Amino acid sequence: EIVLKFFSCFIQRLALKPLGHHVQLAPELLTDGKALWKQFAEMIRNANQRHIPQKTISIHSKPFWCKELTKLANDLQKAKEKFKQRSTPANKLTLSSCTSDFKS
User: Fold this and answer.
1) Helix crossing, 67-85 with 89-103: angle to 10°?
2) 3 state DSSP class of 5
3) What is the C-alpha separation between 73 and 86, in angstroms, rounded?
4) pLDDT for position 37
5) In whole angstroms, what is the distance from residue 35 CA to residue 22 CA?
């Protein structure tokens, strides 16, 4: 009963806030706890979908990785391949330059 009063009060206050989205509550929601909870959970899910960006997370995700690091890693890989094909002083200098850029 206390939880029902809390959520009905909370949702009514949400409906009164000037958020740009008005909440329409049917009168039966204020007396039925399960329906009220379902409406509340739906409101939270909708708000999450509208305002929280989705992020794909896997065991291989690296939160520190960015597009700049991807470019540096690709440049380093190309320099390694080029040095492997021809180990000239110019290719060695390019490889060491790419390695230092990637590590810094």
Assistant:
1) 160
2) helix
3) 20
4) 76
5) 18
